[in-house]
Amino acid sequence: MHGPRVRVALLACEPMRDSLVRVSRDVVACERCPRLRRHCREVAEQKVKRFRDQEYWGRPVPGFGDPEARLLVVGLAPAAHGGNRTGRIFTGDRSGDFLFAGLHRAGYASQPESIRRGDGLVLRDCYIAPVARCAPPANRPTPLEIGRCREYLAREWALLSRVRAVLALGRIGMDGFLAMLRERGQRLPRRLEFAHGAAHDLGDGVQLFCSYHVSQQNTFTGRLTPQSFDAVLEEVKRHAGGSMRAFRER
Ligand code: SF4
Fold it and tell me: Among 91, 147, 205, 225, which residue has the least CB neighbours within 10 Å?
């Protein structure tokens, strides 16, 4: 038996266990990208007319969802007046309206709306993480900024051990996710095709699915429709084995 002092010394030697809570905390405190941090703060101070009475989050936005998820959705970055305002990814903007309506139809989300933190939305069997956690000017993070942010996706990937399906929203999301796997030493083909509905076997039972991004550019033009998004989610569910009973049986 170790005495209390020895136990304290042993605990001090143990490497700190990572957790999704710890990743979220580190994301929210991150200041690695001066351009993005400045932009997020400026947007949060200036606001837009329709949200002028609201307090903006203005900080990096962490991932969100079920720690036991079999589906990981990889997005691009928070929107200036969406996630950067509400503090939750894909929340309070049109992209989120489209995404969560689809996830709700597929049984992954408890409700079709994602309005604000604390609105009751629960994800079951699904986790959402962007490749960049700060809202970028013109919705375009630079490759350097995405690279700086990759650590957080890598840590989430290591912690989300049940994931069997990855849904990449847009090519940048797909490339950012694959770059993270390569950095972790995973051998992958040099080029993987991005096309709506494309799927790639990543080994170890994990399949990568591609969808056009849920941005207004795609959903308002009809490039991405609820039907074509549902079709990809059906393939995801078929692979990940999800009946998403928890919400369906209520
Ligand atoms: S984009 Fe990522 S790495 Fe850059 S400041 Fe935001 S959280 Fe940090």
Answer: 205
Reported as type and span, the H/E element at residue 98 is: helix 94-105
Token couple for 15: 């490497």
Among 219, 194, 231, smallest CA distance to 95 is for: 219
Distance between CA atoms of residues 106 and 209, nearest Å: 15
> Ligand 1 within 6 A of 74 CB?
no
Give the side-chain half-sphere CA count within 13 A for 31: 3
DSSP annotation of 43 reads H
User: How many angstroms is it from 107 CA to the middle of ligand 1?
Assistant: 31
Give the pLDDT confidence score for residue 15 in this predicted structure: 73
2-38 pLDDT tens trace: 445 445 555 555 678 999 999 999 999 999 999 999 9
The pair of structure tokens assigned to 203 is 């080994």
Query: Tens digit of pLDDT for each residue in 112-138?
Result: 999 999 999 999 999 999 999 999 999
Coil, helix or strand at residue 113: coil
Does 128 sit in the ligand 1 pocket, CB within 6 Å? no
- Using only C-alpha atoms, what is the Rg of the chain? 19
Chain-centre distance of CA 165, in angstroms?
A: 13
Question: Ligand 1, from 23, 36, 139: best to mutate by most atoms within 8 Å of Cβ?
Answer: 36
Among protein residues, the one with the nearest Cα to ligand 1's atom 7 is 133
